[in-house]
Amino acid sequence: MRIDPFGLERWFAEYEHEADIMLAESGIRSLDASRFDLDPGKLGYVIPTNGDPDFRESVGDRYDRSADEVLFTCGTQEANFLTFLSLLGDESGLGEEEVGSGTHAVVVTPTYQALHAVPDAFGDVTRVELEPPEWKLDPEAIADAARDDTAVIVVNNPNNPTGQYHDEAAMRAVYDVAVERDAYLLCDEVYRLLAEEPQPPVASYGAHGISTTSLTKAYGLAGLRFGWIAGPEPVVERAWRWKDYTTISPSLFGQHVAKQALGRREDRILSENRELAAAHRDRVADWVDDHDLDWLDPVGVNAFVTVPDGFDNAEAFCRTVVEEASVVLAPGHLFGFPDRFRIGFGLPTDELEEGLDRVSSVIESAGGASAEGDAVTRGGGDD
Question: Residue 106: enclosing H or E segment and its boundaries?
């Protein structure tokens, strides 16, 4: 098995530890640990290792699922990884008659690299590209890409990096394609609760729906590394068997704080974070207009913006920004679009303002240099 290097993580590893401002982060600003009780008692494993049964039942209620249809994981990354292993990487005879079989995945892109690189390592992937500038989901294109051996259709909604929130009608049409092919629709919903009016989760659609998420992006609790899979019991059961070979159990601290974040504190946390996301989105919208750039007004806290004039491509622009202004952006070639860059605006307001000002200086400097070059060219022509 071979897997491609994770381009975005390698980019971050190159720059984020030395840069002053991280303007490529796709989550909301982190909450302070002092808001929570941090004493879970004895520091043992979470028992049972798939998570506290009562807590799983509570989470399952959000999806019209039982406790046995929920598995707690170390973030959404593990949730997705275990789901792909269960659907594409398991030939051991663990309930294929209930789970289905297939080695093919249909993945809607652009998206977070793990959502196509991991299934590509286990099987065969067909990508269905969202088209700019609207980045709309096309159920017919997904139906055309699906095959008899398709095991899973993969959608990230709201989408990273574009911020497009595919509407419920389109998502249900894609779900119908999965049902027709006896496959599953896996939806990474890590940004869903940042929407002012969140749509129903895919796991609530029916037997072929699987939702993955965590407390990282919408709740501002990335350090907990706490997420989950919600979906059909045979898939969740198989994922749990794979989890025995990865992290064994979810984080004890993560589960302890997650119970609080999903309890009486939840409404306040989400209200604060949605308010911050909306205010920052408006600020970045003004910034985009000021520099005559283009984007799709996003849901969540990241957006995919066109590259300013004066730069060959997004990688050249982002390298210039980090090297001259010490601000990290994410170049779009990492998502398959070299003429765009991802900007994250969920960080604290003062950091956002400082970051935007620094990037503006780089853009304006490049614009001035370009104008000087044009003037020299025109002058030479007059001679």
Answer: strand 104-109
